[in-house]
Amino acid sequence: MNVKVLLFAHLKEMAGSGSLSLKLPPGATGEILLDELVAKFPEAEKLRSFLRLSMNGSYITPEDLIIENSEVAVFPPVSGGA
Amino acid sequence: MEMFEIVEEKIDPNDLVAKVSTPESGAISTFIGNTRNFTGDLDVAYLFYEAYHDMAVKMMEQIGMEISRNFNIEKIAITHRIGRVNIEESSVVIAVSASHRVDAIKACHKAIDSLKEIVPIWKKEFMSDGREKWIANDPHWPLKI
């Protein structure tokens, strides 16, 4: 399945784009999505254990299944506020 | 009237105070987060904020619901600014109304703590010497300036 992935902050700069399409096997988890992302952007490897995942606007864990046609996002720990 | 907003222009705290004011509110507590001119030993020129807009609004609404459930308050409003925020300008303003001051103050404190933890907004520091760095609220984040 193809999944559209949104990237933010440092990760977005690293990828040179705020979104990309990843081809994932059926039944893929967040972990597998991160594998694919790191394969595409090896620079992201050192950030991997810190990255957060969301699907349709809610946080998910690397163990959660990625659902086709959902909006997935990957991003560094947040830093809003002052 | 939007109680949870992401905006690009300057925030007027009075707007949030007006949003949460009710006849039953004996207290309105506010938190105003501003850009300061230093971080550690470095001089900060300005900050830049980026948001995952839809999820950020959703998470702020979630914080509002949790606060309303756990504290005896009337209303809560949160506005976060994105884009460039200069020294002494505000990136975030929170206002909470309650019948009594302790509820308003405690709820406001909890709201900013939760925002910094879960709302998908990121801050980039631009230093006076030209260096720049994305900030991540994790003490072990491996990228330093």
List segments of chain A where confidence is low: pLDDT < 50 over at least 5 consecutive residues.
none
Tally of separate helices of chain A? 2
Order of helices and strands of chain B: EHEEEHEEEHEE
Structural class category of chain A: alpha+beta
Structural class of chain B: alpha+beta
Low-confidence stretches of chain B: none
The tally of strands of chain B reads 9
Q: Cα-atom Rg of chain B, whole angstroms?
A: 16 Å
The gyration radius over C-alpha positions of chain A equals 12 Å
What percent of residues of chain A are in strands? Answer: 25-35%
The biggest beta sheet of chain A is recorded as: 5 strands, mixed
The count of DSSP E runs of length 2 or more, i.e. the number of strands of chain A, is 5
The SSE order of chain A reads: EHEHEEE
Mean pLDDT of chain B: 96
Distance between the termini of chain B: 40 Å
Measured between the Cα atoms of the first and last residue of chain A, the distance is 40 Å
Which outline of chain B best applies? elongated
